[in-house]
Amino acid sequence: MTQPAPGPLVEVDGLTFRYRRASDPAIRDISLTIAPGEVVLVAGPSGCGKSTLIRAINGLIPHAYPGEMSGVVRVEGRPTVDLKLRDIALTVGTVLQDPAKQIVGATVESELAFGPENLATPREDIRTRLREVAAQAGIEPLLGRETSALSGGERQLVAVAGILMMRPRLYVVDEPLANLDPATAARLLTILRTLADAGDAVLIVEHRVEEALHLRPDKVLYLEEGRTRYLGPVEGFLRIADPRTVKLPFDVVLARARTGGLAPPVEGRARPEPTATPLPDADAPARLEFRDVHASIGDHPVLHGVDARLGRAEIVAMLGPNGSGKTTAFRTAMRLLPLTSGSIHVDGRDASTRSTAQLATTFGYVFQSPSQMLFAPTVRDELLFGPKNLGHDPGTFDALIEDLLTRTALIGLEDIHERPPLALSFGQQKRLALAIALSLRPSTLILDEPSAGQDHRTAEAFLSEVLAIPGLESIYLVTHDVDLALTHADRILLFRDGRIVADGLPQEVITDTDRWTACNLRTTSLMAANARWGDREQGFLDAETLARRAVARDRGVQGGVEGGTGSRFRDVSTEGR
Amino acid sequence: MNIAPRYLGRGSWLARRDPRVLILIVALFIFTVLQVWDIRFLLVLVVVSVIYYRSAGIPWRYIRRNWTVVFVFIGTLVVVNAIFAGGATAEIPLEDAHVIFTMPILGTPMSAESISLAVTLFLRYLAMATIGFPVAFAVAPADFGVAFRRLGVPEKFAFGIDLTFRFLPSLAADFQTTVDAQRIRGFDWSAGASGFLTRLRRSTPVIVPTVVNAIAGAEDTIDAMDLRAFGTGPRTWLRELRFDRTDRLTLLAFAVLLAVFTVLGFAGITSELYVFPFLLDLANR
Amino acid sequence: MSTATMSRNSLWEVSSRVIVYSAIGAALYGILLVAQVPIPGTTVSVRPAFALVPFFGYAFGPIVGFFTGLVGNGIGDQLSGWGALTSWNWSIANGLVGLIAGLAPMYLSRWTNGSLRDRAIGGAIAGVIAVIIGFLFTFTDLIIQAGQVTVGGVTSFYITVVVADIIATAILVPILVYAWEPVKDRLGR
Ligand SMILES: Nc1ncnc2c1ncn2[C@@H]1O[C@H](COP(=O)(O)OP(=O)(O)OP(=O)(O)O)[C@@H](O)[C@H]1O
Ligand SMILES: Nc1ncnc2c1ncn2[C@@H]1O[C@H](COP(=O)(O)OP(=O)(O)OP(=O)(O)O)[C@@H](O)[C@H]1O
Ligand SMILES: [Mg+2]
Ligand SMILES: [Mg+2]
Fold first, then answer.
1. Which of A185, A526, B50, C70 has the fewest C-beta atoms under 10 angstroms from its C-beta?
2. Which residues does residue A222 pair with via DSSP β-bridges, in sequence order?
3. In this complex, do C179 and A375 lie within 8 Å of one another by their Cβ atoms?
4. pLDDT of B22 over the 90 cut
5. With an 8 Å Cβ cutoff, is C152 touching chain A?
6. What is the pLDDT of residues C98-144, one digit of tens each?
7. All partners of chain C with 3 or more CB pairs under 8 angstroms
8. B101 and C CB contact within 8 Å
9. Of A20, A42, A50, A455, which is best to mutate to test ligand 1, by the most ligand atoms within 8 angstroms of its C-beta?
10. Cβ contact, residue pair A423, C183, below 8 Å
């Protein structure tokens, strides 16, 4: 759909850049041209230089980020070095990775107006443009709202609208789908596609390739460690891409399996052995039980009667739209938020008889953003904060530390004990947060969005590690990554509008497609594939295992398929609708 | 924890005024009050401030607590002063002061002058507080930036004020999350009535993560502003402020008030501390 | 030095960074003012949040410090319902504290250029100096009392406040410097 264009909007030519503080370049010898009407997908594992490339295109490099730059970036024919950020902004509009941080306005209007205001656009023009953009992005209902009161998805749309207001010719979006529920994600992609069809260009950075493909990109740039691994049409990319790094549609994986193009399964990725004994029978008290729980944040009711039983020995995943109350449900369970009515029971006892700290000895709670609890000067102090607060015996501390660091695979890092926690990398902080949660020796782990802000591989690896942690009986996780949840969980709870609308085995829950879509969830190619090739006994399988199985079945061979990810154990307590 | 600015006066007569009016009036009125030591004139100003305050239509039930705070604050201040005044005032030395009685424990004398002074001081602070209150409840938070801009604050800093309001709710939520995260680790701030130094040090588990994360998280916001050409030249403000007739008249009224009292002040009519006769009688008994 | 993130800028440059840090400082100060630790036996309470003013000044420069103190105190009053402008002179005093702490490189370079430990201590020193000088401005309250009150009364009242804030500063600023500096090197430009 590329229209005949005068010249490319952006030319990146042999670009290499090293950040002032870094020892070696973040990107090396990148070349790329973007013509009007083109859609370019940039993919690659975390830290491969995607955001850096974006900064080079929108002029933050070299104008805001000092460092060592060679090669040249031209915007509409002129090198960015010679242009002012202000001029570049007229051509290149950028939506950053985290919409919550990108938004600078207290209200939706002020956020949309911000760009044009800075360009000294007359008020009247801003007003008219505001109306147009609101319609274009379908956010009229949001006008007049406080940006702080928006859901994650709404925020992302407003952030995009803020860029639409500047009427750039190239839209650069950095991982826009990261925290979006699939429905909102689809909506966003439609907006971008429309822009491209109208002759603007789009450069999108995304891990969730499967979804990004709905944009019908004209070319794909695949980076690894700052270098170009692939640049060209989608088909070629799908042929070379590693399904463990980027999330590919199932049929691609299958095709790969057919041609024997799949790397042999890796240790640790296959589902670990059961780490706990199955729950003997249903009438044994559940680990965590919600009975018609109602709760409000401020004066705004969030939970409208949650009923659920979470077993002692199972992996339960909560799925649901942004703002449906998943996080709130667990905050009430930890008594961080009072109930307005209903009751919560832990191992059969009313939770209100226990303090938050006592509950923490049963539930290890891992927050979405790890750094929000880190304060101590050293990792050791950080880990001992909880045990000390609860007055545990100092004699056991050394052993505890070693155990925690080993279980969370942090022990490897040299002098980890003395490192300042806040200076660890995001991934390391996530493990540390995990270790902290384990420091009170809980039997159950609660993970809020373990996959947020990580690429497919990192997220998968992290979750597999967690599942492999010895001594944990059960794990409850909240996520937007449908496939991640379906492949790892024994049971799925669907949240919507502060209620649980479905509760059952993965392969069962997904059968009711109406309900599924009603929860802003999308039918992934993997779900379709499981319906087609999977079998209920084995439960929901991950792409590779399933692909191998499919191939095996085609060949009429039985067995020889490793790492089946069937339900490990059943918690029969599945009433409570 | 609710830290959202409370725009309680919404829609009231005062809230419909140009925000600059409320800001300027605080300034004008404070200088007016400064001229007045004669409590009889001061009462006039108190009445003015109360009428002005009423025009903000702030529902009493929401701010009963705020007023208590105000009274306690002014109260302590005044009492402390009156006591330390030791029966004298800067202008009237103790020997000329009409001592009524000496405080039991402290043994500091209380004179007709010092008591009158205390009452007067109380009213001065009260009048100022009353005029200042509506700024908290009758100005739309979104209007502060542009208001100060139009009052001559440099553009970037004026926007900085807007940005501050933008950060309030999100940072408060982050703060809440941090508090929750630490509570899960058995941390309870209010607990442990140990010495206040320890209490102070124990604020670090909540303050450090909140502050460090806020600063670290700023990077994207900074980029987002640079990428939308912030501060690269003069900017328009979507919100347009215009003084209407009522605004001008209101301002004029307060300006006149200031003028009048300045004159009276220099004429020495309002600038003398008024000592209540009945106190003098008490003293002379 | 703590302002390394902005080492390319002069102390007085007003970049987006300065504005964002200022706004964050002011907002945090306003928010955290809710968290107070009463000093036994006095009406005054130590405000841990106060340490943010010298810290933001010390870490990000005089402008950020001034804005943090000035606007932050105003916001605090605004949120508590006292009205942002009512105690304008206290807001200015807070601003001055941040400003003076931000000028540390000028009068404490020996510390600010030293090791992390030195910089932390330097923060405490700068903070204390800033509090002592900055709060002199609150004596403008004497104007409101127009010399009618013997200085003894006022001073005794303010001394307690200043002492309380000095304690908060001396304890918390170094802690914040220690926590922030390692992070600083991980991000920024
Ligand atoms: N401001 C900076 N200063 C120094 N190094 C940096 C800076 N920003 C990024 N880097 C480094 O440059 C490399 C590429 O970072 P970049 O953010 O571009 O990766 P990315 O592909 O966007 O990762 P993600 O998918 O997690 O966003 C990383 O090693 C990162 O540590
Ligand atoms: N601090 C807060 N103040 C006011 N409302 C809030 C706050 N936190 C959450 N809410 C509201 O509570 C509702 C549920 O929020 P919650 O975080 O539980 O949803 P969620 O299912 O976790 O969403 P997400 O998937 O985006 O994390 C949302 O409508 C949200 O706007
Ligand atoms: Mg990135
Ligand atoms: Mg959530």
1. B50
2. A43, A230
3. yes
4. yes
5. no
6. 999 999 988 988 888 889 899 999 999 999 999 999 988 877 766 66
7. A, B
8. no
9. A50
10. yes
**Å from CA of A454 to ligand 3 middle:** 10
Distance from CA of C177 to the nearest CA of B (A): 10
Closest C-alpha to ligand 1, atom 2: C187
Of C47 and A339, the structure prediction assigns the larger pLDDT to A339
B166 touches chain C (CB under 8 A): yes
Kindly tell me the sign of the dihedral angle through the C-alpha atoms of A250, A254, A260, A266: positive
CB atoms within 10 A of CB A70: 12
The per-residue pLDDT for A6 is: 66
Tokens matching residue C124:
């405490």
User: How many Å lie between the alpha carbon of B176 and the closest alpha carbon of chain A?
Assistant: 10
pTM score of the predicted model:
0.90
For tokens 């430990």, the residue is C117
SS3 C9: coil
Q: How far apart are CA A161 and CA A180, in angstroms?
A: 16
Residue nearest to atom 7 of ligand 2 (CA): A297
B243 Cβ neighbours under 8 A, 6+ residues apart: B18, B20, B21, B251
Between helix A525-533 and helix A250-258 the angle, nearest 10°, is 50
Residue list, CB under 5 A from ion ligand 4: A 327
C179 chain-A contacts, CB cut-off 8 A: 375, 377, 420, 422
Q: Across the interface, do B84 and C26 touch by the CB < 8 Å criterion?
A: no
| Tokens of residue C167, six digits | 């304690």
- Nearest alpha carbon to residue A329 among A287, A361, A296, A353: A296
Nearest ligand atom owner, CA of A22: 1
C189 touches chain A (CB under 8 A): yes
Using CB distances shorter than 6 Å, the residues near ligand 2 are A 151-152, 297-298, 300, 302, 320, 322-328; B 173
Higher pLDDT residue, B91 or A266?
B91
Is the distance from CB of C173 to CB of C124 less than 8 angstroms? yes
For residue B57, the Cα-to-chain-centroid distance in whole angstroms is 18
State if residue A96 touches ligand 1 by the CB under 6 angstroms criterion.
Answer: no
Exposed e or buried b for every residue in C140-166, given b needs 16+ CB within 10 A? Answer: ebbebbbebbbeebbeebbeebbebbb
Q: Provide mean pLDDT across the span B220-238.
A: 92
Q: Which residues of chain A are under the pLDDT cut of 70?
A: 1-6, 179, 265-283, 453, 536, 556-577
The pLDDT mean for chain B works out to 86
Buried b (16+ CB within 10 A) or exposed e, A204-241: bbbbbbbbbbebebbbbbbbeebbbbbbeebeebbeeb
Ligand 3 centroid to Cα of residue B151, in Å, is: 41
pLDDT interval class at C34 (50, 70, 90)? low
Instruction: Sort strands A474-478 and A444-448 into parallel, antiparallel or unpaired.
Output: parallel
ipTM of this predicted structure: 0.89
Q: Which of A73, A67, A72 is nearest to A88 (CA)?
A: A73
User: Tokens for B232?
Assistant: 């690269």
Alpha carbon B274 to chain centroid, angstroms? 26
Q: What is the pLDDT of residue A563?
A: 41
Q: How far from chain centre, in Å, is Cα A528?
A: 22
Q: Residue A447: in which H helix or E strand, if any?
A: strand A444-448
pLDDT band at B190 (very low <50, low <70, confident <90, very high): low
Asked whether A259 and A547 are in contact (CB, 8 A), the reply is no
Q: Which of A294, A328, A333 is nearest to A310 (CA)?
A: A333
* Residue A2 pLDDT: 43
Strand A67-75 and strand A78-79: pairing? antiparallel
Beta-carbon separation of C148 and B121 below 8 A: yes
Which tokens belong to A569? 């154990």
